[in-house]
Write the structure tokens for this entry.
Amino acid sequence: MRIGLQIPDFNGAGGAQQLGRQLATVARTADDAGFDSIGVMDHFFQISMIGPPEQDMLEAYTTLGFLAAATTRARLLTLVTGVVYRHPGLLAKMVTTLDVLSGGRAWLGIGAAWNEQEARGLGIPFPPLAERFERLEETLQICLQMWAGDELPFDGEHYQLERPLNRPPAVTLPHPPIMIGGSGERKTLRLVARYAQACNLFPGPELPRKLDVLRAHCEAEGRDYDEIEKTVIFRFDVGRRGERVSELVDQLGSFAELGIDMAIGGVAGAWSLKPLEVMGSEVIPAVAGL
């Protein structure tokens, strides 16, 4: 099993003046510790599960470009991009740029979007859920077409591109991997089976059923279930002195038994760096063989 770091909260940096320096230090520490990936949320306001909307929140792709320069090995992604936040042609270009400048470490994390408050707050159109899923599928098709070097016009229901040119091409072949976030059984997991290289699910008692549903969609799509990377969003807490490491390793082991390949999430106390170092010295090696 692999471990990915998500950075969902920028309050620990000590304010805007210190944020860049502190964030680079966190990223370098995680990179050196052996985290497989470093991700950020694609939100413009802080989400209610973490804090009030007024808390500091950085724009995701600008931040990932900064993290690319601060790291050398970890994969870089959003968990996950809201499909309506960027035009798909621009999104494909942004992920390609990240992939090129990071030496082939970019992923496209994407989902149907849910935070209407921030969209309305910034004047971003936020159509009904059914339309957002239609736009999600067209966006996936556009990204794959552009990454394949196909410049023919794209004429969809929601998007029309006269010449989807994408130069330079992505470094990663055949294209930056796609991770679709969400557990919806009828639409989201079907799109995973059809288009994605990875899924991002929620932990909990329904997780085994979600994996069974994904397997069924893969069978219907003629897709090899085993080639899809299964990930869960998870919060890591090693304790102030590492006293929870054993408990954490056991929890991760239970995910591995279900066939989960990677757990991704925030690390409690990450801005102090010590928990990241404990993750690197005690947790990541312990679960590597699971």
